[in-house]
Structures are given as structure tokens and as C-alpha cells.
């Protein structure tokens, strides 16, 4: 069978994860990586795969079946996704929740002859699917989402912008008591600080006042002020040795009723590598994207549109026999 | 907006659950219940809903949009589902895993002008969706399914067929140690008795030898011999007071890798009423069934075919805004 030819745009953490995942996927092959950097300076794990300048992508339309857009939501995707969707089938993991509706619209306008699956990944993505599925089945209920234990890039960046901070990593941690009360079916209401803790590991520059840094962190609006936050000062060596992985995960818990009976539906992820798992979801969605395209079903889509069979390389009869 | 008119075939535990769920669902109305019993003897929770003899269903084609088939897999559905699918859109929860492929084929042959969603419910159903989703995203992995703690009707029936047993309830219980080892990412192999316990509550007839009953249970092939089984003799009063609910649930846990990184994807259900939750899934699938029908997408389908948006009464823009 002909393999699905995958392109990767952006060779950061998710792009590197995507490279690894595509190589391990028998029904796909990696046809190229597209970067804004000088291609000669982009060293892939597998040197047989060509690296192209991002502006050369338009000449590679015949060589790529689905393009995985691995850039960031904050700066790259709002422009990149419509641009690429006008030429390629694309999958992205745009995760700025508040801006998804307008993003969907702009990608849809561009994807006239292609399929674009946006906001795949795990939240948005798998967690969104669980929220939709649970509330559709048990409408008399409430859905709770918890994140962590995991590294938040946004919060880690916020720490690193503080004067006197040399390096830092922030973990988001769900509070056990809150999770337990949701699981018990009590349908609690929470203040922000009752759901998650924020744990910061900070390397301070020599000669800085740690108490000042700690106070700046704990009072930082939006990021930390509304949470119980712990700050531990450690050495650069310890930070690199103990905190350079990118674990993440979380839970979607729906507690709902039918008459007098309580039911709890729970989905959880425990991920050692957030970017590699995100890439894994994008790769499965690339298969779905190519199926939609093959059926002439163009335009922007989300995980809410995907028949799950489209995610699998197995034929339908095998899925029914083995997994139903 | 016009409501989806639902019919229920079979007024047992699931049928009663479906009645309750449909009444609580604003975009649906219950148009009739069809029974093999004398309709005059079938007393519904809401007496304004008409009860019909099952053979009169063929005259009600214009009055029903989707028929929920709430009969049993062992005896009813193999004949009922193709019969009804030739006249109506139908949703069933056929759960004899080994026979699903031929069942799908026979229903598909009958559903020429209608849509039939088979094997909805939670296993097969939601658990099947999780198995497919997880292995598609992390193909280098293993999926484990655990059931319980919950009442198994089949095993309870097997107990009641033993001479000297007046009444009995059997609980299937996942073994904590097995669950923990799966969650740890070890990808263990299990003997049957290492995954689940079987806990039996038995009411013995007066004058019977309890030791004989206990031995018969523990050595019963297929049902109990391969498990660690506990047998407790209790009074009929205690059985009715403590064990007449129908809780169930379970877990689908997928443990998989990307390179050196381990990930665990887990879905769990904790249900106070198995039949009411099963009915809730069927009702959400009825909405999907009616959507397929509206698009002229006929034939037999499974949960693997359903775009999740079809399960919800909300419009697509709202889903994207609120849940993605």
C-alpha cells in the first residue's frame, strides 16, 4: 500500500516528536522538514530526510500528502495554518482556546481544496472529545478538567522573564482533595486555588535577593497570584538533571445523573513527554485528514468531526472484530 | 425545533432506563413503547406514552424517528434488529462480542433506507472507542480492559441455576494489584485469575448443603473455575436490601511508548445503574443515528463511524466555543 507522505513544518519540540513518531509509523513516511532556519543548520535525527526552507514548501505540493504544522500557537500558527491549508492537507495543534472560533473560520476559508484538522493534540483534542462525549451522554452533569502534574511552558517562561532569574521550570499540579471530591459525585464549586497548585524550581543569578524573586512570583497576576505557589531555589545543574523532561497530563472528569443514580466518567493522561504525545495525536489525525481528503471532504475540521475509524491504519472489519 | 421521536422496543431494565432518559432529554420525545407482552399489562412510568404490541410497530413507521432496541443480545436482537432496521432507524446495544461481525452484516443488509447503530452502550461502545483511539495514537503499546466493580447478569444467572440456590448476585471486581501494574507502564501479562475476582452472594434454600453449593460454584467451568471466587451465604432479605442495585463500570488502560517515553491513557466508568447508563449512551447514539439518516447515510454503523459532534444536541459553533 502506498504510504502517506508527511511533511513537518517547524522543528522545535513537537516537530522533533513528530519526526520520531512518523518514523515509527508503518503506513507513513517522512518526506521533508520545513524550517525558517537555514536548512543546512537543521540537523534531523534521520539525515536521509530532506530539510527545506519554509518558503520552498509551495514547490513541494506534489510530494506531501499531509503537512504537520508544529509551530507555536502564540506567534506562528495564526498565519501559517491558513497559508499552508491553501496548498496542503494540514494538521495543527493550535491551543489558544479563546481564539479557536476565528482561527477555524480563517483556516476553513483557506482550505478550499484540502482538509485541515485544527487543534488536535490532547487539550484541545482528546480532552475536548471527552468533554463532548460525556456531556452528550449525561447532560445532567458537570465536567471538570484538571491539568498536570506537568510542566507548563507558559508559566516557566513567565518565571524566566523575572529579573535575577537565570532559569526556571514550573509544574502545574492538580490538588488531590479537589479531584477526590469531583470523583465522589458531589459536583463541587472551586476557587482557582482549590483546583491546582503551582510548583516553581528557580535558578537565581548570583547576588540576587531570593525573597524579592519569590514575592514577585507569588504576586504575579494571571500566572501565580490566584494560586498557592511554592518556590524552590536550586542550582542550574540540579535543574538540568531533574527538571529538563517535559511530562504532562491531566484528567477530564464528568459527574452526572440519571434520575437518582450517579455516574462518573473519567479520562486521564499520564505523559512522560508532552511534545511526543501531542505529535502522536497529530499523526493519527493526519491519517484522518488524508481520509477526509480522499473522500473530497475539504475544509477545516476539528476532532469533533472525525469518525474514530479514520484514526486507525487498520481496515474496518479488523477494527470491528478486534476492538469493538 | 422539531423533536426526535423515539420508540422503545422491550421494556426490561434497559427499556425502563431509556424511558427515563428520553423524558429528561429536551430535543427528544417518547412516541411509544413496543412490547411482546399484552400492552395493557405494561405499566410505564409516564402513562401518557402509548404502549403497543411489538407486531404493530410496522404500522407506526410514520410516528417514530429512531427505535431503541432494548432487548437482550442472547435471544432477542439477532432477529429483532434486522427486522426493525428494515423499517426504522435503530440503535441497539448488542454485546456478544464474538458475534458482532455477522450481526453487523445482517443488520447492514436490512438497513437499506435507514441508519442502524449497533453495539452502542459502554462495552461494546465507549470502551471500544477508547481502545481504538488509544492504539491508533500509541501503536507501540498494549490496551487492558478491566470490568467492575459491578453486577454481572450472566454470572448471577449461572449461580441461580444451581440446585439449592434460591437467589444470588455476582460481582466482578478488578484486582487492584493488576490495575496498578498496568498503570505503571510495565505491560504485564496476566492469567485470568490475576485480573478479576468474582464475589458471590447466595441465598440457599432451606435444608441444602452449603458446602456442596460452594464447591459447585467454585468449580464451574467458564464462569468461575478460572477465577478466585468468594461465596457468602446471606438471607433473601439481605440480598434484596443490599444487592438489588445494578452498579457497574470498569477501565480501559492503554500503556504505550514513543521512543524511550512511557505514556498511560486511561478511561474509567463508575456507574450506579448499568442499565440507565447504557440507555444514556443509546439515546446519544439515537441523535447520531438521526443525523446520519438526515444526510442519507444509510446502513449499519458502529461507534467507530460517529463524528462526536453528532452525539450532541448543541450546534457545531457552540461545541467549538464551549468544549474544544
Structure description:
The structure is a homodimer of 324-residue chains. With 324 residues, the first copy, chain A, is an alpha/beta fold. In chain A, 33% of the residues lie in helices and 27% in strands. Chain A has helices spanning 13-23, 77-85, 100-110, 126-137, 153-160, 176-183, 192-195, 210-218, 236-242, 274-294, 316-323; strands at 4-9, 28-35, 51-53, 66-69, 89-92, 115-117, 141-147, 150-151, 165-174, 196-204, 228-233, 248-258, 261-271, 299-301. In chain A, the strands form three sheets. Chain A has a seven-stranded parallel sheet, with helices on both faces. In chain A, strands 8-9-10-11 form a four-stranded mixed sheet. In chain A, strand 10, helix 8 and strand 11 form a beta-alpha-beta unit. In chain A, helix 1 (13-23) packs across helix 10 and helix 2 (77-85) runs parallel beside helix 3. Chain A is globular, with a radius of gyration of 22 Å. The interface between A and B is large, with 65 and 65 residues.
